Amino acid sequence: MSRVPAHATTATDPAARGHELGTACREAIHETYAGYARLFAAHGLHPHHVRDHGRAAFAAIDAWAPHLAEEITGLAEGSGLSVWKVAALNARTEILAAAAVTGEGECSTSVVLPGGGAPPRTVQTWDWHDTLRGGMLAWTYTTSEGRRVATFTECGVLAKIGVNDAGLGLHFNVLRHLSDSAGIGVPVHAVARRVLDEAVTVDDAARIARSARLSASTVLTVVTRDEARCLELCPAGIGEVYPDDGFLLHTNHFLAPELAGGERTTAASGSSTFERDAWLRERAATALRADDLTARAHALCAHREDGAPVCAHADLALPEHQRWESLATISLDVVAGDLHVHRGGPCEVEERTWLTLTAGQAAFA
Fold first, then answer.
1. How far apart, in whole angstroms, are the C-alpha atoms of residue 249 and residue 285?
2. What is the spatial distance between Cα 232 and Cα 256, in angstroms, rounded to a whole number?
3. Which residues are CB-contacts of 246 (< 8 A; sequence separation ≥ 6)?
């Protein structure tokens, strides 16, 4: 099985870093945008809506984190894609939320703090549309302040899941809330990027998240050697979920009581989030505590016939915009600063299929 493409940028200036990555990944960025353009259209979004949303997202990013707007401009110049299109890629969660899109699938994340000085044990699936599997990227870079970061993301998107050299890791799952709106705010992927670039503690990550005006929801599961917390982000506020006996699990519905009342995802809408959550808590909790990352990945091997599609496979009989697949399986080692990525679902993981990036050092195993 082929691995997720990997790239390491050397430029530390935001615009130069964006230009370097945009040039290196030019074709993949164009293909990724084309895939999202089809997805947006399938959900009834006219190209001029996407253009307006992209411009609004760029303005929100520029106001909140001007250096990230500079990087997006560099990405656009390097790739030959319009600035608003690169911004729309980064705001794909916000654009889909503006169209009130719901989905059957999405990601499952587990973090275990075993105690006794042992490092945290993390694993998640990244579930998305199978037609967008070609846009995956494992990327290492260094910020202008010297922070080294390794992230799994999509081509042209600032960041998603990752770890930095300060020993902070970040997992990422989408959520949907009644407060989500079409008034495009700071993209949640930009929030994830600033957390990876700047945060050393979980409190740092929460402070960064609270500073952004949001229009869409997500959950950032932040982990350091000694602490883990789910930060549930939505326009109505930020909820925080703490480990239970060292075990922290999240799928795609709100758990914080102050936000759960605004939950927009329901079992009636076809989402599997509740089944996946129950299956993992009841049948996989012990296995998710395993020290070996391959064993943890195998703990996620539940398919629809098992009662919950934790490991999802696309139903090719469905239209493209209704198909879901576990495109990647990811684990973080916050002590070593390692990002481990397997291309595909947990049922295909073997020890030899992991790609390992060490934060900022472009050390590929």
1. 9
2. 7
3. 112, 113, 114, 115
What is the model's pLDDT at position 105?
A: 66
List, in order of start, the domains of the chain with CATH numbers: 102-358 (3.60.60.10)
The pLDDT value given to residue 361: 44
User: What would the pLDDT profile of 125-147 be if each residue is shown by its tens digit?
Assistant: 999 999 999 999 999 999 999 99
Whole-number Å distance between alpha carbons of 90 and 307? 33
**Contact indicator for 234, 175 with CB cutoff of 8 Å:** yes
- 328-359 residue pLDDT tens: 999 999 999 999 999 999 999 999 999 999 99
pLDDT(269) > 80: no
What angle separates helix 83-90 from helix 26-42, to the nearest 10 degrees?
Answer: 70
DSSP letter string, 236-274: TEEEEE--BTTEEEE-SS--SHHHHTTB---GGGT--HH
Q: Identify the sign of the CA torsion 82, 53, 171, 324.
A: negative
Amino acid (1-letter code) at residue 122: T
Encode pLDDT of 94-106 as tens digits. 999 999 887 666 8
Under the banding of pLDDT at 50, 70 and 90, the label for residue 299 is very high
Alpha-carbon span 139 to 159, nearest angstrom:
9
332: left (phi over 0), alpha (psi -120 to 50) or beta: beta
Give the separation between CA 105 and CA 279, rounded to whole angstroms.
15
Structure-token match 């500073």, residue found:
211
55: left (phi over 0), alpha (psi -120 to 50) or beta: alpha
Closest by Cα among 173, 154, 129, 106 to 322: 129
pTM above threshold 0.90 = yes
**In this structure, what token pair is assigned to residue 351?**
């020890």
Residue 173 tokens read as 């799952």
State how far the Cα of 42 lies from the Cα of 238, in Å rounded to an integer: 31
Question: Phi and psi at residue 160, in whole multiples of 5°?
Answer: -150, -95
